[in-house]
């Protein structure tokens, strides 16, 4: 038996132990690596985790993950596109093309050229149609049996009116009624089961809201443009007698769009395209449409009565600016300043006076004269309307019984007496206040007659205004000054030049004064400032 030395056995033991330790460490590292690598698969194989919903962060401006891009494309952009197509598809069949027709002489083609050319034309000439058609504009079908709304200026005085539907069918149209103040007319065609547009609420429109203009620009049937509501309550002609309250839009409106539809994103009729602001006849991004609320009122009245029946208050008004606000002691510049009250009118009977400022009509605020005019026009005759107004800085309320608007309102007596005037002109001279440099005369019967004033009219006639004085470019020859108002004071009527001179000599050089005057057919307040 052979024995190993004691030192040799000890070394072999240590070597064997080191091998086991190294092998154990390597195995441990391999096991940990495998656990980390295969843990998700192992966990999912043991137990299924509940499904989770991944939300796209709202703060992100654009999607960044392919799945998110698919969500936006399939569920939002395509949906919007499909809605556009659906809405326009419903509106197009309800918008028609309107034509006028006039006779054409067959010999018209034979009037030009020399004899040889004329003979050649005669060889190939064919008889032209009985009528030549001219595309006027557009119209909107509002009933399935053929009631069509369009612009009055398209069909006024037309000898014959024809309508072409979106599918190409043509009909002769009968004019049921026309209303020039709102530029609305109603036509009728003999057809049934037509596509129609439903009324929308123009009052609910907001600036920035998307709208579509549908019509036939330049005779191009069924054209659509898209834009936004740029503004509301526009009165571009600045007329004191019209009922303009236009919606302004940047949707392209061109010749031929007149009478067409302005629809909202629900496909509802919110306006009737009627005018553009343009220097070249084309669209410059400023178009105007009659609000559906105003058009609907006129349409219903034309259908039932053949004309538009409007309410009548009997006042003429002007806007209030910041200067007049101070003179009349008003809290804001909103309201309608009365410049004239018709005799025996509802306003006169209720006690309204020139210089009153109407700020609320039938519980609704009055922003300006145009808003008041439209509100009054839509008030039924016989209705008692509460009116809130300011007089000399104090707020008052009265009830006015509205009557039907007369067809012709008398403008006052007209004295036709002749004779040559003998005027004595008075010059205010270098007066150190706002009334310096005026040349004035008393009213006499001849002046009243020539100016179409009442024989009892009072005031002074302005002959001239010298340059370099405050009233220059504000007062004009021909003005009749009837009244002046100083800040915080009651109105003072002017009856003669003598009274006027006595009054203006008391006015300080630094004081602004409001002058009420008649200029032609208009009455207004004008503020004179130092």
UniProtKB/TrEMBL annotation:
Superkingdom in the source lineage: Bacteria
Active-site positions on this chain: 153, 183, 258
Binding site for substrate: 153, 183, 256-258
Keyword Nucleotide-binding attributed: no
Region span, Disordered: 107-132
Protein's UniProt name: Serine protease Do (Heat-shock protein)
SMART domains attached to this UniProt entry: PDZ (SM00228)
Organism (species): Methylacidiphilum fumariolicum (strain SolV)
GO molecular function: serine-type endopeptidase activity
Residue ranges of the TM segments: 12-38
Record gene name: degQ
The keyword Nuclease is assigned to this record: no
Family matches, as InterPro entries: Chloro_Bact_Ser_Proteases (IPR051201), PDZ (IPR001478), PDZ_sf (IPR036034), Pept_S1C_Do (IPR011782), Peptidase_S1_PA (IPR009003), Peptidase_S1C (IPR001940)
Keywords associated with the record: Hydrolase, Membrane, Protease, Repeat, Serine protease, Signal, Transmembrane, Transmembrane helix
GO annotation terms (biological process): proteolysis
Domain called PDZ: residue spans: 314-393
């Amino acid at each position: 038996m052979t024995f190993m030395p004691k030192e040799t056995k000890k070394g072999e033991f240590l070597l064997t132990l080191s091998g086991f330790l190294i092998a154990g460490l390597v195995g441990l590292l391999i096991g940990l690596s495998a656990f980390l690598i295969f843990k998700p698969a192992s966990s999912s194989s043991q137990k299924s985790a509940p499904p989770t919903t991944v939300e796209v962060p709202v703060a992100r401006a654009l999607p960044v993950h392919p799945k998110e891009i698919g969500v936006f494309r399939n569920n939002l952009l395509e949906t919007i596109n499909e809605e556009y197509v659906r809405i326009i598809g419903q509106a197009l069949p309800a918008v028609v093309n309107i034509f006028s027709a006039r006779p054409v002489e067959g010999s018209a083609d034979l009037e030009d050229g020399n004899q040889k050319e004329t003979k050649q034309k005669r060889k190939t000439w064919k008889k032209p149609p009985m009528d030549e058609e001219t595309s006027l504009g557009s119209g909107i079908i509002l009933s399935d049996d053929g009631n069509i709304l369009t612009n009055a200026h398209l069909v006024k005085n037309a000898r014959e009116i024809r309508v072409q539907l979106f599918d190409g069918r043509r009909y002769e149209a009968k004019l049921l009624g026309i209303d020039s103040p709102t530029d609305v007319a109603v036509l009728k065609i003999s057809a049934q089961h037509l596509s129609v547009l439903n009324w929308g609420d123009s009052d609910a429109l907001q600036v920035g809201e998307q709208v579509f203009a549908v019509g036939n620009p330049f005779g191009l049937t069924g054209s659509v443009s898209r834009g936004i509501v740029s503004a509301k309550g526009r009165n571009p002609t600045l007329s004191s007698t019209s009922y303009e309250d236009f919606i302004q839009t940047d949707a392209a409106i061109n010749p031929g769009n007149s009478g067409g539809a302005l629809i909202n994103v629900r496909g509802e009729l919110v306006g009737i395209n009627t005018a553009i602001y343009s220097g070249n006849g084309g669209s410059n991004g400023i178009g105007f449409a009659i609000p559906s609320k105003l058009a609907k009122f006129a349409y219903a009245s034309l259908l039932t009565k053949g004309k538009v029946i409007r309410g009548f208050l009997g006042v003429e008004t002007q806007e209030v600016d910041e200067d007049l606000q101070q003179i009349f002691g008003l809290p804001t510049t909103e309201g309608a300043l009365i410049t004239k009250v018709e005799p025996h009118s509802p306003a006169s009977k209720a006690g309204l006076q020139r210089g009153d400022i109407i700020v609320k009509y039938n519980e609704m605020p009055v922003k300006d004269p145009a808003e008041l005019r439209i509100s009054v026009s839509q008030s039924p005759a016989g209705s008692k309307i509460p009116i809130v107004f300011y007089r000399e800085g104090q707020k008052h309320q009265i009830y006015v019984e509205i009557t039907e608007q007369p067809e012709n309102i008398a403008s006052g007596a007209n004295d036709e007496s002749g004779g040559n005037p003998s005027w004595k002109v008075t010059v205010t001279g270098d007066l150190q206040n706002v009334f310096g440099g005026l040349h004035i005369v008393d009213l006499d019967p001849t002046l009243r007659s020539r100016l179409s004033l009442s024989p009892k009219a009072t005031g002074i006639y302005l002959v001239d205004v010298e340059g370099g004085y405050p009233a220059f470019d504000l007062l004009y020859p021909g003005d009749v000054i009837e009244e002046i108002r100083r800040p915080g004071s009651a109105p003072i009527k002017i009856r003669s030049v003598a009274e006027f001179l006595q009054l203006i000599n008391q006015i300080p050089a630094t004081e602004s004064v409001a002058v009420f005057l008649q200029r032609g057919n208009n009455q207004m307040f004008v503020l004179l400032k130092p």
